[in-house]
Amino acid sequence: MLSKNRITGAGLRVLALVISLAAGAATLTPAAAAPVPIEAFFANPEFSEARLSPSGNYVAAKASHNGQRMRLIVVDLQNNQAKVVAQFTKADIRDFQWISDQRLIFNLTDSSVGQGDATHAPGLFAVDRDGGNYRQLVNRTGRLLSAPGAARMLPWYHAMLPQSGSMDSEYVYVTKHNFQNENADELVFEELLQLNTLTGQSKYVPRPPDSMGWLLDTRGEPRLSVGLEKNLRKIYVRAQGQQEWRQIASFAAVGKSEGAFTPLALTADDKLYVSSTAAGDKAAVHTLDLATGKLSKEPLVLLDGYDFDGQLLFRNDTLIGLRFTSDALGTQWLDPAMQALQEEVDALLPDTVNLLSPPQQAEAPNLLVQSYSDRQPVLTYIYHRASKKLNQVGASRSLIRPQQMAQQQFLRYPARDGLPIPALLTVPAHAKGQKLPLVVLVHGGPYVRGSSWGWHSDSQFLASRGYAVLEPEFRGSRGFGARHFFAGFKQWGLKMQDDIADGARWAIAQGLADPQRICIAGASYGGYATLMGLINDPELYQCGVNWVGVTDIKLMYTDTWTSHSDLTLFSKRYGMPQMIGDLEKDAEQLKATSPLLQAHRLKQPLLMAYGGSDMRVPQFHGNKFRDAVSATNKDVEWIVYPEEGHGWALPHNRIDFWSRVEKFLDRNIGPTSQHNKQPAAAAALKESTP
């Protein structure tokens, strides 16, 4: 039996950030004079998502070099021989999984085109670890191809499902998305099929009437389904080997709800693990009795200061560990042998967080180790248990040198009403003294966790150019308890905005930030917060960078483009009215917190960038605000990436965008900003379409 296990963030390897508060302006050492090339930050990773086979004798990963297509490779750890088992001339490997020690499944994407130019669905494919027995299982287009075997392919709206269990079969489970119309605007329900990866034959699994999600048990069988009816979430289970589903719980899908929980894992012997706030403010791990539907009175695992957000690690039906996020990613091992192995690896790699992934078979000779820090992007190792040696098999970003990167600190600062606001602070590697130029980087969502301690391209790039970076987890952000989350409801432009400004003022009070050189920046909700920050606090922010940002809350509900938006009817009917605001009941508040209706108040330099194919925040948002703000503000730079969606999928667009951000910041708050201001004569709106 597990006992209550309270885990503190202090157990993670978070390096202390030392900020010198000696008098004088910030300076840079000569070592910072030659900045790291921008491509090192924003190119696609070279090696990623490595996974061990069930026996631990093989490791599969995605790999790409010199801008080539992303390939699926398998390394035989017995002889260290690598083999490309899947590659395509016009597509890239997207996701993959082992389904046995012999066989893998994967799907595809096309990293050479943006969302607007994408013409294919992900599909689904299977291949043996030696490249043999290749088979396409799900079509990538709306038409069946004439190739041999195409008639047995499933249509494009079938998708990969995470597999679990013993992983010793050629069978997998896939989902079928059923939409309300042929444009795939709204998912109505989700079916489940069992699919043979060798023959392509499939059969349906009986389902509850409103199924919208599935959970396989620890032996890989579908035993739990999540249903959704209006704003009611339902949990169904079925007994091992049975067809009938039984509802065990229902609760509100959005908003506070007594008895709400999130299923995490179900063992073959009917032990259901869930995440719930039943024991207090923070979501903790409980068990749930399938017969009574009752949660365990005491939590099995409770993090100190954080919601449990992660996964449970099993070997067969035994829970051996938990992977979670507190200030950084971490692991709590319940299995003494795995804890001993963790200590051995940590002794070899003392300066990084080291995430061990054991294979399914307990006697396997190898462990996968993914190692990272705030200054080190992920490195992948194989740890050989008998020899106790590490062998590096891949680096995600080989051009990054840790000694050139910045240190990052997780901290909390007080909001004006006393609420502690978690945040990440990144300070340039070679900064000396105080009063640095500061970028307040606001995460999107907004009702999500922004980030955790580690190496991140945006903040590290900005730090490499001499900027301190503050990333607030304002109220409404997930991961820090129910109180923190619900405090953000209906607070767009209000207390959520105050939390961000309070972070900038905290940095000034600490002597870290130069009060005359602060810029606010962010994407999506972060773009909205950028505009509202410039409007609400003009004395605090000298400039702003908004990409794919909401410019008027009402536009998300009412304008004609919403018939083609990926915002669901569920979100508009139940989520947004509770979390953001009701169009009728909160009409005056939504007007007062609309950047579009207050565009004339924004006088600072502004960089705006939008994707021409964005279905979350369509370019229409940007167009309307650009036209409104340019009537009274001539220092506006406008960029459109026609093929991109809600963010930049293509490396050359990421590189182009951040190159523009670098120039914009340098012009307005950078080291040369006072000598490199654009003359007033250059008053025309600057537009460009890369």
If you had to describe this structure to a student in words, what would you say it looks like?
This protein has a domain at 411-674 and 683-688: Alpha/Beta hydrolase fold, catalytic domain (Rossmann fold, 3-Layer(aba) Sandwich), CATH 3.40.50. It has 690 residues and is an alpha+beta fold. The chain has a nine-stranded mixed sheet with strand order 30-31-34-33-35-36-37-38-39, with helices on both faces. The chain has a four-stranded antiparallel sheet with strand order 3-4-5-6, with no helix packed on it. A four-stranded antiparallel sheet has the order 7-8-9-10, with no helix packed on it. The chain is globular and about 65 Å long. It starts with a strand and ends with a strand. Helices cover 16% and strands 33% of the residues. Residues 1-32, 143-149 and 675-684 have low confidence and may be disordered. A hairpin with a 5-residue loop joins strand 19 and strand 20. It has eleven helices and 39 strands.
SSE class = alpha+beta
Just give the CATH class of the domain at 411-674 and 683-688. Alpha Beta
Determine the CATH superfamily of the domain at 411-674 and 683-688.
Alpha/Beta hydrolase fold, catalytic domain
CATH architecture of the domain at 411-674 and 683-688: 3-Layer(aba) Sandwich
| Helix segment tally | 11
Principal-axis shape equals: globular
Question: Any descriptors?
Answer:
11 helices, alpha+beta, globular, nine-stranded mixed β-sheet, Rossmann fold, 690 residues, 39 strands, four-stranded antiparallel β-sheet, disordered N terminus
Write the layout of secondary structure elements.
Elements: E1 5-8, E2 27-28, H1 39-42, E3 47-52, E4 58-63, E5 71-76, E6 81-86, E7 92-98, E8 103-109, E9 124-128, E10 135-138, E11 158-160, E12 171-179, E13 187-196, E14 202-204, E15 211-216, E16 222-229, E17 232-237, E18 246-252, E19 262-266, E20 272-276, E21 284-288, E22 301-304, E23 310-315, E24 318-325, E25 329-333, H2 336-348, E26 353-357, E27 366-372, E28 379-384, E29 389-395, E30 407-414, E31 420-427, E32 431-432, E33 436-442, H3 457-464, E34 468-472, H4 482-486, H5 495-509, E35 513-523, H6 525-536, E36 543-547, H7 555-558, H8 569-579, H9 587-592, E37 606-611, H10 619-629, E38 636-641, H11 651-668, E39 686-688
Parallel strand pairs: 1-22, 33-34, 33-35, 35-36, 36-37, 37-38, 38-39
Antiparallel strand pairs: 2-32, 3-4, 4-5, 5-6, 7-8, 8-9, 9-10, 11-12, 12-13, 13-14, 15-16, 16-17, 17-18, 19-20, 20-21, 23-24, 24-25, 26-27, 27-28, 28-29, 30-31, 31-34
